Amino acid sequence: MSRPYNFSAGPAMLPEPVLKRAQEEMLDWHGSGMCVAEMSHRGKEFLSIAQQAEADVRELLAVPDNYRVLFLQGGASLQFAMAPMNLLRGTEKSQRKADYLNTGSWSKKAIAEAKRFASVNVAASTEHDGTFTRAPAQAELSLSADAAYLHYTPNETIQGVEFPYVPDTDKPLVADMSSTILSRPIDVSRFGVIYAGAQKNIGPAGLTLVIVRDDLMGQAMDGTPAMLDYKTHADAESMYNTPPTYAWYLAGLVFQWLKDLGGLAGMAEINQRKAGKLYAAIDGSDFYANPVQPDCRSWMNVPFTLANPNLDADFLAGAKDAGLLTLKGHRSVGGMRASIYNAMPEAGVDALVDFMAEFERAKG
Description:
Blueprint: E1 5-6, H1 16-24, H2 44-61, E2 67-72, H3 75-87, E3 97-102, H4 105-114, E4 119-125, E5 127-128, E6 131-132, E7 150-152, E8 155-156, E9 161-162, E10 173-176, E11 193-197, E12 208-213, H5 230-235, H6 245-260, H7 263-283, E13 288-289, E14 301-306, H8 312-321, E15 324-325, E16 336-339, H9 346-363
Parallel strand pairs: 1-15, 3-4, 3-7, 7-10, 10-11
Antiparallel strand pairs: 2-12, 5-6, 8-9, 11-12, 13-14, 14-16
């Protein structure tokens, strides 16, 4: 293989064709005499890049006309505050209510932030002894009649828990799709707000994609700073201030790469196949285990443990020697974690599965 396979949860690997194209265009983008990182964000060269990127992501996700696509900063963590500040209604905190689903580390952070602004109803929690191994069923959701919205995290990056369905609600649905966006087709019309940090399936860190329905803008809470108002950015076409231009450019190259692969339907087939191979290797062995309920397993983030945790360091060292990088699990979960986002080629998963079998033969 020409490069090691990087299983990092984020910042994650980028598609090699994207990196090669960026390399070719580094010193002179399309005869402009400039690197994209040197361009004015208001110049015609960068505006053409930005407009094409938005058009491509709209096409990939089939974004309806009554939604705005914003290219922002601050990561998903800023959206933990920005979403409630824009969607909550009422002058007093006690009047402002929102429903949240608690399914892992990132939804817990979103809940903690929302409590600064509203009365939060945790409509379902699957936490058990400090761990999460499943998503709640629709029947388990205790939704409030007067909530302004329902927030959930479709894929928990750390725990590897993924919702096998989209929650049904008559309120605007807000989703942190950082780890799962662009991995398969979705029906955007079922959501009020979708947000995603770029550093997993979109591009490099520093960019945040936000898709927001028109009717949810323009009513931000009193005192909301201009930079935290969705309408500010929608009116300025994501250029109220200087955006992360190079990250936006690389995201646009990723969108074009996805289109060349056949769009999100084609990507979904590849992702299902990759995840299936890895879970089969884990389930087919007593040496490895995955803690997540099978119908709630993530396509993107696959945690697994060794039967003997004393072998963890040997596993990681051997994997690194084999060109398999960043497999150490999150400190709150332990063990290993393989993040197999869109840019991870199927050959990378095959190489990991082969190494796992070889390691088990040697140490099991």
